[in-house]
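Suppose a colleague, Dr. K., hands you the sequence of a protein chain of 250 amino acids and asks what its three-dimensional shape might be. Before reaching for any lab equipment, you can write down a predicted structure in token form. Begin with the sequence itself:
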Amino acid sequence: MKSYASGDWIVYPFSNDYNLDDLLKCVEMFEGNEVHETVIKKYCIEVLKSDYRSVVIKFTFNGKALVAKRPIEKHSRAWARFVTQFRDSEVVEASKKLERVKRVGLIGNQAIAAFEKRIKNRVADSWQVYTYLEGCVPPIEVFEKVKEILVKIHQQGYLHGDSQLQNFLYTLDQQIAVIDVKLKHNRLGNYGRSMEYEYLCRSNFCFKPYFVKERKWFSYKLYIFFKFLQLRFRDVKKIREWFGYKKNQA
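The predicted structure, expressed as tokens, is then:
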């Protein structure tokens, strides 16, 4: 992947469908605590998320809905900035993972570009831009399809990385897409798969009937046991929540 400089920014192209210099100028307008009203109207801006961790903005560019994400927390941590001297920034890594989603045959956001600004070879600011997918959280009627997608990810040697229901999308054309996916290599075998199945079940109790066979695995029971031990020494409130979940599973 070839990058190039544009002013103070380094541009990493992941798509040839857009003029990335114009796109960068557009994204720069989103910086600051307040975005000017004329910019909001011109680009149909909608703030999807804004907290100490990141800012996520939906906007329109060349007639298409895109998303710009800025990982604020990473920019504020000295250690996180320091390690970018030796590896790609978070936005570049995230864009590569979106490309990996496409290569393994899954539906997901398409990476457009990653922009980063470096000071003394350390990332001081960055943005990731990708396509916006229209849809909703999968309803119970398509839970079997959600499981099939997760199983497909595992069969190809990966883990989703954050397999809660909210990170699957039921698109307008009635397909299941994956969002906020990490696609980590599964080095834990069935134990890694068990963790993701349990995490999915904990995000919605109605998933339990879809994992009756998997819940009998030794690795699944082992994960539940270690999860209990972890909670036992951390937080009484979380233990109660966990037992509440188990009660609802009964």
